[in-house]
Amino acid sequence: MIPFNKPYLAGVELDYIADAIKKGKLSGDGYYTKKCSEYFEQRYGFKKVLLTTSCTDALEMAAILLDIKPGDEVISPSYTFVSTVNAFVLRGANIRFVDSAEEHPNIDYQEIENNITSKTKAIIVVHYAGVACDMDKITAISKKHNIPLVEDAAQAVDSFYKGKPLGSFGALSAFSFHETKNIISGEGGMLVINDENLIARAEVIREKGTNRASFFRGEVNKYGWVDIGSSFLPSELNAAYLYGQLENLDDIQARRKEIWQRYESNLKTLQQQGKIELPVLFDYATNNAHMFYIICNSVEDRSGLIEELKKRGIYSVFHYLSLHKSDYFLQNNDLIDLPNSDKFQDTLLRLPMFYELTLEQVDYICESIAACFA
Ligand SMILES: *Cc1c(COP(=O)(O)O)cnc(C)c1O
């Protein structure tokens, strides 16, 4: 049996967890939390990093930080995870869903401006499969209209746009360390704050609306309730696991890229025969090998493939359902037509991708796909 995902353990995570327990502080913002945030700030030049309990929580912090209020509008792709927009809906926002590009699940930047109104308070982009959106174009739109940009960089760790790390473009950016991502901590995430003006308030929101962080730095002599917030900080146990992963980041990324390239070269023939499409990469974007997907010619092709692969012990999975067609959204909104999002909903298929997947297994998966089309 080849699962779709298997959480990776480098080994050193267990030592760090034991050490965190020995240090006698299990709640958040201890030694390992600090090590992790410093790692990201130094390696990628992020202005400020706050570890969170999930990417979902980082996005919820972003919505609070941007003062999203009932009636405000937020622009987002429809082909994304629920959390991308739910975080903003929790604050009362209405979502303006934008289609994916034709050749890639990323947002079609050319459609963003058509959706900007006087009520637009944020533009959210998702770097699907860790491949950058066209950030020059999107940053220009955000600047021109003076609307803050949020990157849902959940899948985009260690990925770049024209040499600049993803997560460094938005006023705020959210990453995930969920066990299905490249770098993991079980459940976990981080908020990257690139707009300096938002840093102090972010610390408060993350600590239940208190100024506890500045108290511990000795900036105030008692801490109290100064804003709204929640408990968005992860335990040291999670941070310890994460730090073990970060020490192995280069190895993890190299291995995933090797697997990715094997898939691509094995499946080239099927692409040339017009049976499937392979992921498009852009000149401006790196590939962090978060995901290997294929695009089938029809939903029937895809269902057949999933079934056939399952018979051969291989677990492949489709991905998002267009959010503009979700039951929840349609309760309060009219149906709109976003054909590219629907196309990816129906035809995109993700293949097993995890550190321990062997190249022999990749070959077997690709042979099995070819057999399905024979
Ligand atoms: C995984 C993912 C999330 C959610 O991350 P969590 O850490 O599980 O909350 C949000 N957006 C995208 C695009 C994701 O891939």
TrEMBL record:
Presence of the UniProt keyword Transcription regulation in the record: no
EC number(s) stated in the UniProt entry for this protein: 2.6.1.59
EC main group: transferase
List of catalytic residues: 181
InterPro entries (alphabetical): DegT/StrS_aminotransferase (IPR000653), PyrdxlP-dep_Trfase (IPR015424), PyrdxlP-dep_Trfase_major (IPR015421), PyrdxlP-dep_Trfase_small (IPR015422), WecE-like (IPR012749)
This protein's record includes keyword Chloroplast: no
Pfam families: DegT_DnrJ_EryC1
Gene Ontology biological-process entries: polysaccharide biosynthetic process
Chain positions found as N6-(pyridoxal phosphate)lysine: 181
Domain of life per record: Bacteria
Keywords, in A-Z order: Aminotransferase, Pyridoxal phosphate, Transferase
GO MF term set: dTDP-4-amino-4,6-dideoxygalactose transaminase activity; pyridoxal phosphate binding
Family affiliation: Belongs to the DegT/DnrJ/EryC1 family.
Protein name: dTDP-4-amino-4,6-dideoxygalactose transaminase
Organism for this UniProt entry: Silvania confinis
Gene: rffA
